[in-house]
Amino acid sequence: MIKKISDYLEAIYNLPLNQSLSREHLLHSSFLAGKENNVEIYYSPHNEYINKDAKVIIVGITPGFQQMKMAYETLRSELANGHSLEEGLKKSKIAGSFAGSMRRNLIHMLEECGLPTALGIKDAASLFSTERNILHTTSVIKYPAFYKGKNYTGSQPMIDKNKLLSSYAYTIFPEELAQLPSKTLVIPLGKAVDRVLTNLVQEGKIKQAFLTGFPHPSGANGHRRKQFEQRKEALIKGIFQWTQERA
After folding, report:
1. Band (95; pLDDT cuts 50, 70, 90)
2. For the residues of 215-246, what is the DSSP string, one character each?
3. Closest alpha carbon to 133 in 53, 57, 74, 60
4. pLDDT (tens digit per residue) in 14-58
């Protein structure tokens, strides 16, 4: 059974305040959620919060260490300042969701696809600020996964070849989607996430519509721009079709 924040609260309260948290702090046995061969999954609090009013769900492969770090630092600060656990989890979600250059790249592509027009909002950037109430962000691997100590990228090992990763992608992830509205649009980032969504649809485990072929916005994806230009027209059509179906 997947562990929850209640299993880690004591360790979270023991994290140092007012300083940058390191890999030694977070990639620690206190937060280890699972291990299989060279794959390790560590708990992170920001994917605990689920926005059940979302109109759009953006799905990554797994949170990276930087997202994990921001989420923990935010939650630790919120709790120390006397805020509720629920509020702390919400704030850590906002802080950790596709942070840094990845968010900038993602916003640019969503803008070009016409998503803001479909949603009736000012721009794609507002999804991460004033319109955050209509966005839910998550990952097929709910918590940060690492392969040989480095951020897991979805390719080595393949999700389907690792029982630990598969349990998150094909059991835990669809359970999360089941809590969200059926008319929500799912945007999977990258081929590995796309493949998981396709398999889940074939298995009848998800009810939402999803775009296919959306490039991963990571700066490490050097082919991102080319991939996007090749898929842009189809993505625009996919968003338009979703708009018509939910009308």
Report:
1. confident
2. PP--TT-TTHHHHHHHHHHHHHHHHHHHHHHH
3. 53
4. 999 988 999 999 999 999 999 999 999 999 998 888 999 999 999
102's CB contacts (< 8 A; 6+ apart) are 217, 218, 219
Check pLDDT > 90 for residue 246.
no
The confidence score (pLDDT) of residue 16 equals 92
Average pLDDT, rounded, for the chain: 92
pTM of the model: 0.93
Domain ranges of the chain: 17-241
Instruction: DSSP for 142-191, please give it.
Output: SS-EEETTEE--STTTTGGG-HHHHHIIIIIHHHHHTTS-TTPEEEE-SH
Q: Which long-range contacts (CB under 8 A, 24 or more apart) does 173-177 make?
A: 173/138, 173/139, 173/140, 173/141, 173/142, 173/200, 174/200, 174/205, 174/206, 176/50, 176/138, 176/142, 177/57, 177/206, 177/207, 177/208
Which residue type, as a one-letter code, is found at position 46? H
Tokens of 171: 């059991």
> 17-241 has which fold?
Uracil-DNA Glycosylase, subunit E (3.40.470)
Give the pairing type, strands 56-60 and 185-188.
parallel
Q: Which two tokens stand for residue 49?
A: 């919060």
Element (H, E) at 56: strand 56-60
User: 42 and 33 in contact (C-beta within 8 Å)?
Assistant: yes
